[in-house]
Amino acid sequence: MPEPSEHWKDQPEEHDYPAAADYLELMLPRSGVQRLVAALGKAETIHKKAKDLNRASGLPVLPPDNPHVAQDLKKISKGEKLSPVLLVRGVLGQGIPLTVADGYHRICASYHLDENADIPCRLVDL
After folding, report:
1. Torsions phi, psi of 63, nearest 5?
2. I want to staple 98 with a disulfide (CB 3.0 to 4.6 A). Which of 10, 57, 62, 64 is the partner?
3. What is the dihedral of CA 1, 103, 89, 4, to 10 degrees?
4. Residue 97 — φ and ψ, nearest 5°?
5. pLDDT (tens digit, 0 to 9) for every residue of the chain, 126 residues total?
């Protein structure tokens, strides 16, 4: 199996942005979503550890047999690269966790390979 740090693409795929918008529209008005998605498209790619992304989001780590996580693990085992994740920063002290706008299953898959692995992310402020 490839090294965990070697299974990421440099740039998000175009279909990741509409997927992020679909999710964010459940929590924000469309105008706010459009602003965030545009910002994600322009944001610099940074790297954060899988375990820290899970902790900051408050989301559970899905098991490796979850169909979407298993699909990403299979891609990695075949040498395919995953798209960076799209994130909206939480607000500490206000109880607003990090929002994984797109890439939750990819984070979980990477966590199962190495929880300390750096994951490429696009991060914007709410």
Report:
1. -70, 160
2. 57
3. 0
4. -75, 165
5. 444 457 899 999 999 999 999 999 999 999 999 999 999 999 999 999 999 999 999 999 999 999 999 999 999 999 999 999 999 999 988 999 999 999 999 999 999 999 999 999 999 998
Its pTM surpasses 0.70: yes
* Token pair of 119 as six digits: 């994951």
**What are the domain boundaries of the chain?**
4-124
Considering just the CA atoms, what is the radius of gyration of the chain in Å? 14
Phi then psi dihedrals of residue 37, to 5 deg: -65, -40
Measured CA to CA, the distance from residue 46 to residue 115 in angstroms comes to: 17
Class of the 4-124 domain? alpha beta
Q: Report the candidate in 112, 114, 88, 117 with the shortest Cα–Cα distance to residue 23.
A: 88
Distance of alpha carbon 47 from alpha carbon 33, whole angstroms: 23
